[in-house]
């Protein structure tokens, strides 16, 4: 066995060491550590780069056909329980190691510039390294118990990172929401782990599926119990990967710094749920109801995320719902048994979405000095536009990521998404329809986001009447007697360059002339007298652009590892990339066997659907300002307006899922608390207080009854004795009569 496998445990150790050094420095020598913050950040990036190098070499060895390597040592051992710890190197683990470390290094390089002016710069890098360490430990875990330990540690780090700006109320609420929602799924995961251990007596991945299949065959355990344990196990993945109905935490998690969104919501934390389902795939595959449930959860989540994203104005929230939808694709593929397509899409989506998130961070970072340091302004696409001219590299990177996510060839996500659409149709036609609708909506909302952000003209400092940017929204508001931009009512106006010098969230004054900001003046070409020279954001610095340029490479090329080359193209020295993917994912039917004509037919259909969504986005949000819709029959216009308004409200209010949860769980918890408070005050405390009051009145009565004269005491004693004798006599006579 290669020496590299014996030291694979060092992969999570390197980021753990950097996090420990940074944390100890902040605790013991805070002033000196802050003065050397660039050095600490460089050390963190360097150590994670070493882990990345080891991961890439392990990945290469797995491609070369090395066997699975497992190293275990006893943790707890007695007659009833045997717990072991260690690490497992197999193709799935090697893929996850490469994804986590490569995206993690790019995020760290990017963060060195993005977070440079933040007071919590070193704290951010300490959290980031700690998160990477625990995530790497999770994918190397050889059994369910160790996986659960790292699963919870990853959840703790996500809580710290999402709530990094905890002094902001929305960030504090977002991290609490993410933590509580994930605890619901994690509690189910723990019950599922314990249930499977009770049934099989093992936590090992391979032993679990083998022993459970034997028990089901020999009727040693009921199918209902096995399915229940599998559902509980799957609930952890539902929460972690933001699947319906535990998806509500993901959009609010955008309150954290943008580099965190790129890392957590592209290649690591949300991918952990997909990883767990893939790791337990042999167990789930033996339970037909479980596979059906997984596919339906994935299909509903994919379609729900795609229907909510089109009306969102926050740049990062659109990407959050896009992530939710694409994760639904992966879960759907796993549910229909397409293990290879799911993991292939996990790879392609990770790099494409990391590029998009870092691109959005570049936009926000450049827009903030002009639009204001408030997320409601710096992340609002209604106040952007024309940024491709000011930020050409960011615009190009964002455009490539958008094309990839829409499934346009030859970019990465095209090859993986096409397989999922095909396998969905082969499994159940209704799932195929849901996947197709999701593909069309993805093309629409992704290009809506790109067009509103990078095309047209910059709107943050414009003043005067805002022209409608969408025929759809104009129809919606015309029905209610309004017309506005992206949901703004009539009469809304932007801010002049002088007005934009005041931060709308903090009120801090800034130079209205733009001097010192490095921004250039621009004028809308057809502005006329309503528009004056504007301030345009500038391109981000080199460190941030370096990460974008590097991520453009896998976004454009990584999909070719699944390209179906004809049989015989391989040589004796190296196989085609698609052979590597089939080898790594242990796929029984390699894509090399697929017919090119079948591939082209499926690709033509999927690309046509994506292009139709893109065309609709161009019609509604294209850079050319379209004239108002012609007047039609008032009754028909009212029907269309009502229909458009209903669709818009469904999308804008997130499918009403958050409202339902607030009503059922939020208000329900408050009502329950009030009832419990009333019961406690009047029943529990009433009983205790009643005993006290009775004692008090009894004492007062005895105090007045006692006058201090012995004759009164003797009279009371004689009277009590006579009453007692009378009671005893009556009772004796009654018993004798019976």
Automatic annotation (TrEMBL):
NDH shuttles electrons from NAD(P)H:plastoquinone, via FMN and iron-sulfur (Fe-S) centers, to quinones in the photosynthetic chain and possibly in a chloroplast respiratory chain. The immediate electron acceptor for the enzyme in this species is believed to be plastoquinone. Couples the redox reaction to proton translocation, and thus conserves the redox energy in a proton gradient. Gene3D superfamilies: 1.20.5.2700. The chain crosses the membrane at residues 6-27, 39-60, 92-112, 124-142, 148-167, 179-200, 220-239, 260-281, 287-306, 327-348, 354-373, 393-412, 432-451, 543-567, 599-621, 713-732. It is a multi-pass membrane protein. Keywords: Membrane, NAD, NADP, Plastid, Plastoquinone, Quinone, Thylakoid, Translocase, Transmembrane, Transmembrane helix. InterPro entries: NADH_UbQ_OxRdtase_chlpt_su5_C, NADHpl_OxRdtase_5_subgr, ND/Mrp_TM, NU5C-like, Proton_antipo_N. Residues 532-680 form the NADH:ubiquinone/plastoquinone oxidoreductase chloroplast chain 5 C-terminal domain. GO terms for cellular component: chloroplast thylakoid membrane. NCBIfam families: NDH_I_L (TIGR01974), PRK06590.1 (NF005141). The gene is ndhF. NDH is composed of at least 16 different subunits, 5 of which are encoded in the nucleus. Residues 141-442 form the NADH:quinone oxidoreductase/Mrp antiporter transmembrane domain. Pfam families: Proton_antipo_C, Proton_antipo_M, Proton_antipo_N. It catalyses: a plastoquinone + NADPH + (n+1) H(+)(in) = a plastoquinol + NADP(+) + n H(+)(out); a plastoquinone + NADH + (n+1) H(+)(in) = a plastoquinol + NAD(+) + n H(+)(out). Belongs to the complex I subunit 5 family. One of its GO terms (biological process) is ATP synthesis coupled electron transport. Residues 75-125 form the NADH-Ubiquinone oxidoreductase (complex I) chain 5 N-terminal domain. GO terms for molecular function: NADH dehydrogenase (ubiquinone) activity; NADH dehydrogenase activity; quinone binding. It is found in: Plastid, Chloroplast thylakoid membrane. This is NAD(P)H-quinone oxidoreductase subunit 5, chloroplastic.
């Amino acid at each position: 066995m290669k020496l590299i496998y014996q030291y694979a445990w060092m992969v999570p150790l390197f980021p753990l060491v950097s996090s420990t050094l940074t944390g100890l420095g902040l605790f013991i020598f805070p002033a000196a550590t802050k003065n050397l913050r660039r050095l600490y950040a460089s050390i963190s990036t360097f150590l994670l780069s070493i882990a990345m190098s080891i991961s890439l070499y392990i990945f290469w060895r797995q491609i070369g056909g090395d066997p699975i390597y497992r190293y275990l040592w006893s943790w707890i051992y007695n007659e009833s329980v045997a717990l072991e710890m260690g690490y497992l190197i197999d193709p799935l683990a090697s893929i996850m190691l490469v994804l986590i470390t490569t995206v993690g290094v790019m995020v760290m390089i990017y963060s060195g510039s993005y977070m440079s002016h933040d007071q919590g710069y070193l704290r951010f890098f300490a959290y980031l390294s700690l998160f990477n360490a625990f995530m790497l430990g999770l994918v190397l875990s050889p059994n369910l118990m160790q996986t659960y330990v790292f699963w919870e540690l990853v959840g703790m780090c996500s809580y710290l990172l999402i709530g990094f700006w905890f002094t902001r109320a929305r960030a504090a609420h977002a991290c609490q929401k993410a933590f509580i929602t994930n605890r619901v799924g994690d509690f189910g995961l723990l019950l599922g782990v314990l249930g499977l251990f009770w049934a099989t007596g093992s936590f090992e991945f391979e032993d679990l599926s083998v022993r459970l299949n034997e028990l089901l065959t020999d009727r040693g355990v009921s199918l209902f119990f096995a399915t229940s344990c599998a559902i509980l196990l799957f609930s952890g993945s539902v929460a972690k990967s933001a699947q319906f109905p535990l998806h509500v935490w993901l959009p609010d998690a955008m309150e954290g710094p943008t580099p965190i969104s790129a890392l957590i919501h592209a290649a690591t934390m949300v991918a952990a749920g997909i990883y767990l389902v893939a790791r337990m795939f042999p167990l789930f595959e033996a339970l037909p109801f479980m596979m059906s449930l997984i596919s339906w959860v994935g299909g509903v989540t994919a379609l729900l995320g795609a229907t909510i994203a089109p009306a969102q104005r926050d740049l990062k929230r659109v990407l959050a719902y896009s992530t939710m939808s694409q994760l639904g694709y992966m879960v759907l593929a796993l549910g229909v048994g397409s293990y290879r397509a799911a993991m292939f899409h996990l790879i392609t989506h990770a790099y494409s979405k990391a590029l998009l998130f870092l691109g959005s961070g570049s936009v926000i970072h450049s827009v903030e000095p002009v639009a204001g340091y408030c997320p409601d302004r710096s992340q609002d696409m209604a106040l952007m536009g024309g940024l491709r001219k000011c930020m050409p590299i960011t615009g190009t990177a964002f455009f490539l990521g958008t094309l990839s996510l829409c499934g346009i060839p030859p970019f990465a996500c095209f090859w993986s998404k096409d397989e999922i659409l095909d396998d969905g149709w082969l499994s159940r036609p209704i799932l195929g329809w849901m996947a197709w609708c999701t593909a069309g909506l993805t093309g629409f909302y992704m290009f809506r986001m790109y067009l509103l952000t990078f095309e047209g003209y910059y709107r943050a400092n414009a003043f005067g009447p805002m022209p409608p940017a969408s025929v759809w929204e104009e129809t919606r508001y015309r029905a209610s007697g309004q017309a506005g931009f992206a949901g703004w009512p009539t009469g809304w106006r932007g801010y002049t360059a002088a007005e934009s010098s005041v931060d709308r969230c903090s009120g801090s004054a800034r130079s209205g002339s733009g001097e010192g900001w490095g921004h250039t003046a621009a004028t809308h070409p057809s502005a006329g007298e309503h528009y004056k020279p504007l301030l345009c954001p500038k391109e981000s610095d080199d460190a941030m652009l370096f990460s974008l340029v590097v991520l453009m490479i896998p976004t454009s090329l990584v999909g070719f590892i699944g390209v179906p080359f004809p049989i015989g193209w391989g040589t004796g020295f190296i196989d085609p990339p698609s052979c590597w993917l089939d080898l790594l994912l242990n796929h029984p039917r390699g894509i090399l066997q697929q017919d090119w004509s079948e591939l082209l037919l499926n690709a033509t259909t999927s690309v046509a659907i994506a292009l139709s969504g893109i065309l609709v986005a161009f019609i509604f949000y294209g850079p050319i300002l379209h004239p108002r819709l012609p007047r039609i029959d008032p009754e028909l216009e009212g029907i269309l307006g009502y229909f458009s308004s209903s669709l818009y409200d469904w999308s804008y209010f997130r499918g009403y899922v958050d409202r339902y949860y607030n009503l059922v769980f939020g208000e329900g918890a408050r009502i329950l608390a009030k009832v419990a408070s009333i019961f406690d005050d009047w029943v529990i405390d009433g009983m205790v207080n009643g005993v006290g009051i009775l004692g008090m009145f009894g004492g007062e009565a005895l105090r007045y009854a006692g006058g201090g004269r012995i004759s009164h005491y003797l009279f009371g004693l004689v009277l009590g004795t006579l009453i007692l004798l009378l009671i005893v006599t009556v009772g004796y006579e009654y018993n004798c009569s019976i």
